Amino acid sequence: MSYQQTPLGHTIPSSFKNEFDQKRIAHTSFGAGPGCMVGVHAGYSPELTLSMGLQWIEHYRSVFRRACLVTPQGDRMWFTREGFERIERAKEPNKKPPTPGLEVDRPTAARLGIEETSIPSQTIRAYKNTEFRVFSDPRLKLTIGKQNPNISRYQDDLVGVAFITAFNPLGEALSDEQNERLHESLCSSVRESAYQFKEGEGADPTSEWASEKSLYIEGIGLSAAIQIGNQYRQNAIVWVGTDQLPRLVLLR
């Protein structure tokens, strides 16, 4: 589905469609607004197409009062339930992705000082370099930003696969025993939700840090995957949609 085919897409002026499609979408959010946006938020690496961003907020159109797509440069495209509302230009390009956990209008953001993600840049780089290994037959490896035709595809653009760990919440190292308990809890929770999943691990190719047990969850919606990541207090999850391109989804 292209952005021209989405109901929201029809409400966007053509010049803005072309501009935002070229710039891509680094962040999506929706919420009850106005002002502080309390709802579902995520930052993406690599960035989304405009079509994927629109489908993400279209999915929540019945519940949000305002929604926002943000480019890597910090330009914002705002929507109400009725459709396109306005463009808000960044005064200067964002040096880091906007905060996924809280989306606000620019005056409020400036007052609160929350223009950047709380995840350190070196941690994000480490996530991007991680090998996400799936213990399937044959084995499967997910690499951020690298398309893999062996990953399952689904008709719904907001249904795909997620790679999630419960180890070391918020990046804080726990004992082996604590991490094992969290992993068992994650397995039980996903199993109770009737998702199909395979065991896996997130591994540092340089072996500087220990591998983290993880789950490769199939046929799960993006919002449900984000909810699980937040439940286990993770900084990020890996998401793969219909383009079979693993993306890092920042949750903090």
Structure write-up:
This protein is of the alpha+beta class and 252 residues long. It folds into 2 domains: 3-112, no CATH class; 121-250, no CATH class. Helix content is 25%, strand content 29%. It has helices spanning 14-23, 50-58, 106-112, 121-129, 176-192, 222-231, and strands at residues 25-31, 39-48, 66-70, 76-80, 83-88, 131-134, 140-142, 159-165, 196-203, 212-221, 236-240, 247-250. A 12-stranded antiparallel beta sheet has the order 5-4-3-1-2-12-11-8-10-9-6-7. Strand 4 and strand 5 (83-88) form a beta hairpin. The longest helix is centred in the C-terminal third of the chain and has 17 residues, at 176-192. It starts with 13 loop residues before the first helix and ends with a strand. The model is unreliable at 33-38 and 95-116 (pLDDT under 50).
Strand content: 25-35%
Number of helices: 6
SS content category: alpha+beta
Average of per-residue pLDDT values: 83
Termini separation comes to 29 Å
Largest sheet: 12 strands, antiparallel
The strand line-up of the biggest sheet is 5-4-3-1-2-12-11-8-10-9-6-7
Search tags:
single chain, 252 residues, alpha+beta, 2 domains, 12-stranded antiparallel β-sheet, 12 strands, globular
Summarize the structure.
With 252 residues, the chain is an alpha+beta fold.
Helices and strands in order:
Blueprint: H1 14-23, E1 25-31, E2 39-48, H2 50-58, E3 66-70, E4 76-80, E5 83-88, H3 106-112, H4 121-129, E6 131-134, E7 140-142, E8 159-165, H5 176-192, E9 196-203, E10 212-221, H6 222-231, E11 236-240, E12 247-250
Antiparallel strand pairs: 1-2, 1-3, 2-12, 3-4, 4-5, 6-7, 6-9, 8-10, 8-11, 9-10, 11-12
